[in-house]
Amino acid sequence: MQRADPGVCQRFTLWAYQWMQTMLFAIEEINQNPVLLPNLTLGYLAFDSCLAESTTVGAALAMVTGQEAVVVSGGASCRGGPQVPVIIGDARSSGSIAVARTLGIFDIPMVSYFASCACLSDRRKYPSFFRTVPSDAFQAKELARLLRLLGWSWIGVLYGDDDYGRYGVQLLLQELQGSDVCVAFSQVIPKTHDPRRIRHIVETIRLSTAKVVVLFAIAEDALPLLKEVVRQNISDRQWIGSEGWVTSPGASSPENLPALVGTLGFALRKAHIPGLRAFLLRIRPSGSTTHPILRDFWETLFECSLEEGTDLRPRCTGLEDIQATPNDYSDVTQLDVSYNVYKAVYAVAHAIQDMLACQPGQGPLENGSCPSVDNVIPKQLLHYLERVNFTTPLGDVVNFDVNGDPPASYDLINWQVNDRGTAELVTVGQYDSSNPPDQRLQLDLDKVVWGGGWTDKVPVSVCSAPCAPGTWKALQKGKPVCCFDCIACPDGEISNKTGAIECTRCPEQFWSNDRRTQCILKKEEFLSFSEPLGIILTVLSISGAVLTTIVLLTFILHRDTPLVRANNSELSFLLLLSLILCFLCAMCFMGRPLAWSCMLRHTLFGISFVVCISCILSKTVVVLVAFRATLPGRNIMRYFGPVQQRLGICLCTLVQVLVCILWLTLDPPLPSQNSATVRSATVVLECAARSLAGFAALLGYIGLLATVCFLLAFFARRLPDNFNEAKFITFSMLIFCAVWIAFVPAYVSSPGKYTVAVEIFAILASSYGLLLCIFVPKCYVILFQSQKNTKKNMMGNNNKGQ
């Protein structure tokens, strides 16, 4: 054992010395094994790398260039150049990379027990590198899966300034790409452990809203940072550790527990190696011949000096009891890295055993010859290391894949406090790459004690709380995708799951509920008989029909009176019948629109109003012609007798009937949904006119007749005699025209079912106008002023005129 450069090393690491002693234990165990490598003794060279790449490469070169004597088990020395066909180490990824690059070109194999950087799996760069520790590619992938599994979408990342930290975090971030996990901050721990820089990193942790911190570093880099975290009393974080530090005894010391309890991380599988503890405890310094590394170990462990007067420390006797003092060296409860050292030594031994078992003619050399074990050639040993496959004395299978990596297996470790107030590393889960994909990662949440004050439930670490159903995520400008605002879905769209990134539009016949979580059938809207407005219009319609019927009965009962006879009783009866139809047709516009009702309502409305206006027009013409016919030399009344009147009414009505027939034949009105209500919670059912030309012709013809009637009545309004009813027709036509002129803008601007209500109101208003203006004055005379219902009174004004 040698130290390559005594001036480089700054401090002695007890657990690293345990690793070296484990190698010696494995070598001694193999040399004493009568089955494995019989009649062959393994020797070794051991150098201290001092955690520096230059020292590590120098030590490796010293081993392979013959600068040191070979030390075999038992202390004997072999003269001549060293027989070092393989290197066990280095522990660090950076050191292993440096050595593998240097010695790889000479095909000298090396087997690392702790260098986990995924970059070392590159066979083109490192063709002779093997390891018994899993690649960080597995750890990074499972770390990302663990974060997603526990719902941590807002995390902080810390990593060491070396190949292990940089490559590990790079792989982690690659695994997190495209997921719902975002990085709130990312900080690198400097190798110099500058206090000011360390304080800045811890301040970043304290100010961040991320409650979960992933630390990917070796123990030497993690310890200074964790010490500052404890000093600043940051205890509200959940720490996630890599295998590089999560089982480090220094990190889980009692003084760190208040801040770091609940730490969760991946750790190498630990094992119990029988006999190792006794082997570790048997070493003793031997005076002046004590090896410098052993001297450093003893003085560091017992804080004393083996040489008198060298410093202010007390003198060591060399008889101190190692097991009496709790220390990292003699602690065999967490044999994870040491077990990898153990497997690495056995891998080399089994490769040499396979060389011994080679059968002539079946070997890897030219002509099938076998290599010689008297002088092991590194390149030949490399061939057998690639194919090694064995089971350790502890029952674990060891082999290497095409990249020199072993099967990956981890324990999930949780830091908990035991009854003694010290840290207990509890296994709460496992990962095994040999299992089926859905069974590789297993975690027992009931066993976990969480950090950050969330001891009884999984901590929450999110930038923004998940959006509830009915809302969608709107990213905040300039921030990661995990930071967003929850926006309510627009009308007609829904989101029925938590964290929706967009809302889904409801189908055409559906609409969103008030919470925007599901699509429901749209509420159908039409003017029904049961609603208040429908009831009012129905009452008005029936009342108008009843009132008109009463007037009709009144006229029938008094049909022989001068007033009824003078007002052309036949036309009056027909007019009243058509008014009854006008009132009743308003009810056809109410209720659910159906194909037959849509065609009936417009047809009945158009024809009944044309009959009504035609009767009024005929009465007006008769009044006007009757007065003109009384002038000397004029006898035109013979052209406007009852037959001609009936024929005129029929001709006027026939035109409207033809319009209706053409409309219903070519493009009839049918039930439809109002296109203006497509993006609405309700769908308005209506009768679509479809053919605007047909609807315009129907209304236009009624308007034409009403206009002609109004003009003729207006001209005849001042004709003498009580017989004249032209002035009443004028008022009725004035009301009729005013109602339908006002109907157009009201109809266009009314929403939904109120469009139909406006149309019904126009029908009823114009019908009431005709009834009240034309017939109420007559009924008043018939019923209450019967003395005026005489022929003399009817001709009163005419006599005065003569």
Protein architecture, described:
The protein is an alpha/beta fold and 802 residues long. It has 4 domains: 2-133 and 337-399, Response regulator (Rossmann fold); 136-242 and 244-272 and 408-447, Response regulator (Rossmann fold, 3-Layer(aba) Sandwich), CATH 3.40.50.2300; 471-523, no CATH class; 532-670 and 695-801, Rhodopsin 7-helix transmembrane proteins (Rhopdopsin 7-helix transmembrane proteins). 43% of the residues lie in helices and 14% in strands. It has 22 helices and 27 strands. The strands form 9 sheets. Strands 10-9-11-12-13-16-17-18 form an 8-stranded mixed sheet, with helices on both faces. Strands 2-4-5 form a 3-stranded antiparallel sheet, with no helix packed on it. It has a 3-stranded parallel sheet with strand order 6-7-8. A hairpin with a 4-residue loop joins strand 4 and strand 5. Helix 11 (337-356) packs across helix 12 (378-386), helix 15 (569-585) runs antiparallel to helix 20 (754-784) and helix 16 packs parallel to helix 18. The N and C termini lie far apart (156 Å). The relative contact order is 0.07. The model is unreliable at 1-7, 69-81 and 797-802 (pLDDT under 50).
Record the SSE blueprint:
Blueprint lengths: L1 E2 L10 H18 L11 E2 L2 E2 L4 H12 L5 E3 L4 E2 L8 E2 L4 H11 L6 E3 L16 E3 L4 H14 L4 E7 L2 H14 L5 E8 L5 H13 L4 E5 L2 H13 L6 E4 L15 H4 L3 E5 L7 H6 L10 H11 L34 H20 L21 H9 L2 E3 L5 E3 L9 E9 L5 E10 L8 E3 L27 E5 L8 E5 L4 E2 L9 E2 L4 E3 L6 E3 L1 E3 L6 H26 L4 H5 L2 H17 L9 H35 L12 H25 L3 E4 L8 E7 L3 H24 L10 H24 L4 H31 L6 H4 L1 H6 L1
Parallel strand pairs: 1-3, 6-7, 7-8, 9-10, 9-11, 11-12, 12-13, 25-27
Antiparallel strand pairs: 2-4, 4-5, 13-16, 14-15, 16-17, 17-18, 19-20, 21-22, 23-24, 26-27
Helix pairs in contact: 1-11, 2-3, 4-5, 6-7, 11-12, 13-15, 13-20, 15-16, 15-20, 16-17, 16-18, 17-18, 18-19, 19-20
